[in-house]
From TrEMBL:
GO terms for cellular component: kinetochore; nucleus. Belongs to the CENP-T/CNN1 family. PANTHER family: CENTROMERE PROTEIN T. It is found in: Chromosome; Nucleus. Keywords: Chromosome, Nucleus. It comes from Serilophus lunatus (silver-breasted broadbill). It comes from the Eukaryota. Residues 24-117 form the CENP-T/Histone H4 histone fold domain. InterPro entries: CENP-T, CENP-T/H4_C, Histone-fold. This is CENPT protein.
Amino acid sequence: PLQELQPKPIPKRSRMSQRKPRDPQISRSLIKEVFSHFAKMPVAKDALKIVEKCTEKYFKQLSNDLEAYANHAGRKTVKMADLELLMRRQGLVTDKMPLHVLIERHLPMEYRKLLIPVAVSGNKVIP
């Protein structure tokens, strides 16, 4: 007796498997703008490539350190205290230079309002 030939099932490709996952990156324009602001001069293209690599390595190390601090404290969430501890270990925050002073010096007003608690009328503290 003859058996019916059945087609072999073809595995479906998902769109996600075709794309390679990418690491999130900070935009070149932002890095150039920030670096030019603090250097107070324009940046050459070849120098900008090196600054981009350094920025990427810095933020990877920063996030690894913050993750380690949160894990050490038994948490899965990075908190403000972890960031302050990291900045203290890097020498950015000291007894003479608290975190609030750095925030006031380097961030615009809309970010200051979010990060520094402010007492308002009615005995309320924002945020």
